[in-house]
Amino acid sequence: MTEHRYEVGFIGAGNMGEALIQGLIQSGHAAERIAIADKSPERIRDLQARYPGLATGDPEELTAHSATLLLAVKPQTLPELAPTLSTAVGEGGPLVLSVAAGITTAQLAGWLGDATRLIRAMPNTPALVGAGVTGLYAAPTAGPEDRATATHLLEAVGRAIWVDDEELMHAVTATSGSGPAYVFLMIEAMQEAAQSLGLPADTALELTLGTLAGATRLAAESDESPAELRHRVTSPGGTTERALQVLEDGDLRELMLRAMTAAADRSRELGR
User: Fold this and answer.
1) Which pLDDT tens digit goes with each residue over 29-77?
2) Is the pTM of this model over 0.85?
3) What is d(CA 264, CA 244) in angstroms, rounded to the nearest whole number?
4) CB-based contacts of 142: which residues, under 8 Å, 6+ apart?
5) How many whole angstroms separate alpha carbon 84 and alpha carbon 52?
6) Is the CATH code 1.10.3730.10 the one for domain 179-270?
7) What Å distances lie between residue 158 and 9, 26, 128, 155, CA to CA?
8) In angstroms, rounded to a whole number, what is the distance separating the alpha carbons of residues 176 and 99?
9) Is 236 exposed, middle or buried (0-12, 13-18, 19+ CB in 10 A)?
10) Domain assignments of the chain as residue spans, ordered by start
């Protein structure tokens, strides 16, 4: 068995990469066993200052010496970057996790080698506070131990949920990958509406955040469906019923379907 210098090597150290690094270190992984490669020397210095002991190297070095290689670069970067790593992948034999939206395992195998153990992951930005949810798909070359490794790594920043059909990763991207932005837009809209009704900005934001956090927790912990919970808070002829009728008249469900379909379509485009 190959002995690897690093437990995890990150190629690309943006916000998502940092969230994973932070989660791994906070859950007990040694910074010295984590390495990063990034095109920005300033970014590397910044991360090493925040996480003392964090190693660094060029992409080929990290690929050859990491047990798990995490590709955290933009999808448009991979067609040029990935082929340059194929020799190092053959030498080091890392498990390769890609968080690039839309890029398929078949494409990655074409660039890195057909025998490469590949897993696609779609984390989301709440990983920055340990509350992320990551959708995962394993190529046939990745075995049960590889799936366990990926689950362990991603659970350092939240929950890990597997899908068995790679095509579903587009839906995962549209749901949880892009989903936080839908919620942030709802927060903006509710706060602005509350201010229009006369509430001070800080009060409007606090009420909005508390309401969304509480409702989400209730939905997560309740045995009842979201629809039933909605019915319970909607008294006939009351204020909530009047508000929901406006949202239904505006066809909120169709609008959300169109938005998420657009996100899924863009994910497919990025993989072409």
Assistant:
1) 999 999 999 999 999 999 999 999 999 999 999 999 999 999 999 899 9
2) yes
3) 27
4) 95, 117, 118, 119, 150
5) 29
6) yes
7) 20, 12, 9, 5
8) 13
9) exposed
10) 6-164, 179-270
Interhelix angle 179-196/201-221, nearest 10 degrees: 140
Half-sphere exposure of 131 (CA within 13 A, CB side): 6
Greatest extent of the chain over all pairs of C-alpha atoms, in Å: 69
Q: Do domains 6-164 and 179-270 have the same CATH topology?
A: no
**Rounded Cα–Cα distance for residues 90 and 116 (Å):** 8
65-101, pLDDT tens digit by residue?
A: 999 999 999 899 999 999 999 999 999 999 999 999 8
What architecture does CATH give domain 6-164? Answer: 3-Layer(aba) Sandwich (3.40)
Length of the chain in terms of residues written: 272
For residue 129, give the amino acid letter: V
- First-last CA distance in the chain: 36
Tell me, what amino acid is at 228?
Answer: E
Tokens, residue 267 = 């994910």
* Contact yes or no for 64/37 (Cβ under 8 A): no
Q: Where are the alpha helices (DSSP H) in the chain?
A: 15-26, 41-50, 59-65, 78-81, 86-92, 105-112, 144-154, 169-172, 179-196, 201-221, 226-233, 239-249, 252-270
